[in-house]
Amino acid sequence: MHAFNGKAVLKETHNFKVHLNIQFMVSYKELGLVNTKDMFAKAIKGGYAIPAFNFNNMEQLQAIVKASAETKSPVILQVSKGARNYANQTLLRYMAQGAVEYAKELGWEKPQICLHLDHGDSFETCKSCVDFGFSSVMIDGSALPYEENIALTKKVVEYAHQHDVTVEAELGVLAGVEDEVQAEESHYTKPEEVIDFATRTGCDSLAISIGTSHGAYKFKPEQCTRDAETGRLVPPPLAFDVLDAVMEKLPGFPIVLHGSSSVPQEYVDIINANGGKLPDAVGIPEEQLRKAAKSAVCKINIDSDSRLAFTAAVRKVLSDKPGEFDPRKYCGPARDLMVELYKHKIVNVLGSEGKAI
Ligand code: G3H
Ligand code: 13P
Ligand code: ZN
After folding, report:
1. What is the pLDDT of residues 113-168, one digit of tens each?
2. pLDDT tens digits, residue range 172-216?
3. Which ligand 2 atom sits nearest the alpha carbon of residue 302?
4. Which ligand is nearest to the CA of 51?
5. 181 lines ligand 1 (CB under 6 A)
6. Cα 213 to ligand 1 centre (Å)
C-alpha cells in the first residue's frame, strides 16, 4: 500500500513536471527562426516579395525548405488554425525547428525562415503561438466591425511586440473560405482607413483586399471572360488602383496579399484527367502577381497551388499504377512537383531568389 502511494506521488509529481514543461515559453530565436521585420524592409527596397507557403505535412515542408535553400530565398512557413488541428501544434513547431537544421544541411548557411500563424482568429491563439516559438502572427479581425478589429489587433500587437514577434493585420474582406469563415463577396480595403488603422494598432504589415480570394475558384464564371481558343476562363484584373491608393497613404508600409494562388491549368488538367473534378477552377494570373511583387506588396500567400500540385501527382501515380500502395511512391513525386512549383514562384513570380545569402 505504502509503495503504491509512493508511486502515485511520483507519478503525480512527474505529471506535474510534464505539465509545467508544456507551459514554458519558447522563443523563436532559440529555434533559429526570424521575424518578418528585416525581410519586409529589404523586400520593399528591392522590389520583390517574400513567399508565404502554407504547410500541413512533412512533404510540403521538405519541398518548401528544399526550394528555398536551393534558391537562397527568404521564406515564410505558414500554419493555419486548420493545420494546427490537423498536424498538432507541438509537432508543427518542432518541424519548423527541423526545417532550419535541414536548410543548413542543404548548404544554406544562414537560413531566413519565419514561422507564421496564418489567419489567427483570437488573442488567445496568437498568444499561444507567440509563447510557442512562432516568429510572426496574423490576427485576422477583418470580419469584425472596424473599431473591434482595431481593439483586437492592438491587443495582439502589444503582446507580440514584447517578444519581438511581428504582427500582420487585415483590413477589407476577401471572398472565399478562411478557415471556417466564409464570405460570399469581397469588400475591397478602403484606402481612407489605412492610416488610422496602422497608426492605432501598431501592426507591422497589412493584408488588403484588392480582388484576390482563397481557394481554387477565385472568380465565378460570370465575373470572367472565356478564351475563344482554349475555352478557359480569363479572370478580371486585380484592383491595382486600390493598392496604389493604399501605398500613397502608407508609403513604404509592408502590404500582404492573401489568396494569391494562380491555379496552374496543367495541374487542374492532370487532376481532371485522372478521376478528379475541378471544373472552371481559376486563379490569379502570374503577371499580376509579378507586378504586385515589385510594389509595397512584400508577402504573397500561396497554399492552393501546392495542394493542386500534390493532388495532381498523387492522382497520376495512382491511376497509372493502381496496385501501388507505398505512400512514398506517390508522396515522393508529389514532393518533387511541389519543389518545382515553389522554385518557379520564387524565381519567376516573386523575385526573391538570392535575397537570403
Ligand atoms: O487562408 C487559407 C489557407 O489556405 C489555409 O487553409 O484553413 O484550410 O488550412 P486551411
Ligand atoms: P490561396 O488559396 O490562393 O493559395 O491563398 C492562400 C492564403 O491566402 C493563405 O492565407
Ligand atoms: Zn489567407
Report:
1. 999 999 999 999 999 999 999 999 999 999 999 999 999 999 999 999 999 999 99
2. 988 764 444 445 566 999 999 999 999 999 999 999 999 999 999
3. 4
4. 2
5. no
6. 11
Q: What is the DSSP string of 204-255?
A: SEEEE-SS-BSSSB-S-GGGSEE-TTT--EEPPPP-HHHHHHHHHHSTT--E
* Amino acid identity at 107: G
Domain boundaries, the chain: 46-350
> 54 CB under 6 A from ligand 1?
yes
Strands 75-80 and 233-234: unpaired
- Rounded to whole angstroms, the Cα distance separating 24 from 160 reads 16
For atom 9 of ligand 1, the residue with the nearest CA is: 82
* Gap from CA of 73 to ligand 3 centroid (Å): 21
Q: Classify burial at 7, counting beta carbons within 10 Å of its beta carbon; exposed 0-12, middle 13-18, buried 19 or more.
A: exposed
The bound ligand whose nearest atom lies closest to the alpha carbon of 345 is 2
149 ligand 2 Cβ < 6 A = no
* 118 catalytic per annotation: yes
In angstroms, the CA 350 to CA 294 distance is: 8
Convert 142-159 to b/e letters by CB count within 10 Å (16 or more is b).
beeeeeebbebbbebbeb
Contacts for 15 with CB less than 8 Å, ≥ 6 apart: none
pLDDT at 17 over 80: no
Q: CB of 54 within 8 A of CB of 306? A: yes
CATH code of the domain occupying 46-350: 3.20.20.70
Q: Is any ligand 1 atom within 6 A of the Cβ of residue 179?
A: yes
Task: Decide: 153 and 167 in contact? Cβ < 8 Å.
Answer: yes
Q: What is the pLDDT of residues 293-338, one digit of tens each?
A: 999 999 999 999 999 999 999 999 999 999 999 999 999 999 999 9
pLDDT in tens, 89-108: 889 889 999 999 999 999 99
Query: Position 50: which residue type?
Result: I
Of all protein residues, whose CA lies closest to atom 5 belonging to ligand 2? 259
> In terms of Cα–Cα distance, which of 194, 211, 193 is closest to 255?
194
